[in-house]
């Protein structure tokens, strides 16, 4: 199975790791996972403070450490849809924050005559304070990458 997901990955945190792990699990041992990483104007719009190459390097290190690197491809994302609209994928992994983007992707795919992606939503990962874990909160020194209060 071919599975895709995307994100800014400004700080690789537990929520991202859950998305990636779910994508790998969904793809299966012979499948492939395509990970889009925001670049350019969309990364700027999301107030990304970490350069694209550094975010990709951090992501690759995580994938290699988990033994996922042979089943993944990292692609740049220049908008909120990326290659998920036209690519040959079977499923998309999203968080509650990006669920509506997946709906929009399937609408666009339909207009192109492509089969809809199976949308698999993972829940928000909550920090110790029961608020969603996010890169913004990590960069503001509220929590660490695992959701522990700083």
Q: Largest beta sheet, briefly?
A: 5 strands, parallel
Q: Rg, please?
A: 15 Å
Major sheet strand order: 3-2-1-4-5
Q: What CATH architecture do you see?
A: 3-Layer(aba) Sandwich
Unreliably modeled segments: none
Our measurement of the CA-to-CA distance between the termini, rounded to an integer number of angstroms, reads: 39 Å
Order of helices and strands: EHEHHEEHEH
Assign an overall shape: globular
Relevant CATH superfamily: HUPs
Task: Tell me, rounded to a whole number, the average pLDDT.
Answer: 95
Number of helices: 5
Q: How helix-rich are the residues, as a percent range?
A: 25-40%
Q: Let me know the number of strands.
A: 5
Q: Which percent band covers the strand fraction? A: 15-25%
- In total, the number of domains comes to 1
CATH fold description: Rossmann fold
- The CATH class is Alpha Beta
Question: What does this 3D model show about the protein?
Answer:
- The chain is built from five helices and five strands, in the order βαβααββαβα.
- The protein has a five-stranded parallel beta sheet with strand order 3-2-1-4-5, sandwiched between helices.
- The longest helix has 15 residues, at 52-66.
- The protein has a single domain (2-125), classed as 3-Layer(aba) Sandwich (Rossmann fold).
- It is α/β, with parallel strands linked by helices.
- The mean pLDDT is 95.
Characteristic terms for this protein:
150 residues, 5-stranded parallel beta sheet, 5 strands, 35% helix
